[in-house]
Design brief:
Blueprint (H helix, E strand, L loop, with lengths): L1 E2 L5 E2 L4 H13 L6 H9 L5 E2 H4 L2 H6 L1 H7 L4 E10 L5 E9 L7 H9 L1 H28 L4 E4 L5 E4 L1 H4 L5 E3 L5 E3 L2 H14 L8 E5 L8 E7 L13 E5 L1
Antiparallel strand pairs: 1-2, 1-5, 3-4, 4-5, 6-7, 6-12, 8-9, 10-11, 11-12
Length: 243
């Protein structure tokens, strides 16, 4: 799983855990995950079981467990989390059925033996995803098209010089979030972002920008990135191309 700087979430899971993660991705982004926070600060560069970072009382009251795991029979985890230079947090997590009890120390030793390989693999996938975003905007720059790759919250992952030249009509605001100077266009972009997170919202959309005294009319096209599991660690959710 990857956690973006603004709590955008993506995950690649086994079939047995998919329903729990899909519910969490859809509804759990703003719930504090103390396991991730404590794993990074207290037990970095290794796997830890949930009882290493939380008490039994904390786990009993944990919203993530109670809303997304226990209703599906899941109740225990062993995981690792680490930060990347881009500000993302990458999480590797193993889940276990509640009836099977917590992971024991033997299982934890096996996970930690393989930790360097897990960490290297997910970090490489993450970096390749960011490089793919930069390659996309560079290629569109080469043919004269202003463009940006953005995440689920509208935060820019990569943009090109041509797009920056359109400021303030299309601009980067706080936290590098894409925005439009025209209120109507900004509202349409917010609606497009919301649609990207829905199963039926994977169709391209267009936002017209009216001509002004000093600028010609433009159309901003929003193209969803249809994701395969192999690029789950790229934050890109959509591409903005301006014509």
């Amino acid at each position: 799983m990857s956690v973006g700087p603004q709590r955008s979430l993506r995950a690649l899971t086994r079939v047995a855990c998919r329903e729990a993660y899909e519910m969490y991705l859809a509804e759990g982004a703003q719930i504090q995950n103390r396991r991730i926070e404590r794993a990074i600060s207290d037990l970095p560069n290794q796997f830890a079981v949930d009882l290493d970072v939380c008490t039994n009382e904390e786990l009993a009251d944990d919203l993530i467990y109670n809303r997304f795991m226990r209703p599906l029979g899941l109740g225990w985890s062993a995981g690792s989390a680490f930060s990347t230079p881009s500000g993302d947090i990458l999480v590797i997590d193993f889940l276990r059925r509640e009836a099977d009890g917590p992971f024991d120390r033997r299982a934890l030793r096996r996970f930690n033996y393989a930790w360097p390989h897990f960490a290297r693999g997910v970090l490489l996938a993450h970096r390749l995803g960011l490089r793919a975003a930069q390659t996309t905007t560079d290629a569109l720059e080469a043919v004269g098209l202003p463009a940006a790759v953005f995440d689920q919250r509208g935060q820019v992952v990569s943009s090109n010089v041509s797009l920056e030249a359109l400021s303030p009509r299309i601009r980067l605001g706080a936290f590098d979030r894409l925005g439009f100077n025209a209120p109507t266009a900004d509202k349409l972009f917010a609606e497009a972002l919301s649609a990207l997170g829905q199963a039926d919202g994977q169709n391209p959309s267009s936002i017209p920008l009216a001509a002004t005294r000093d600028h010609e009319a433009l159309i901003a096209h929003i193209l969803p990135i249809r994701r395969a599991g192999s690029d789950v660690f790229s934050r890109g959710a959509g591409i903005l191309i301006v014509t």
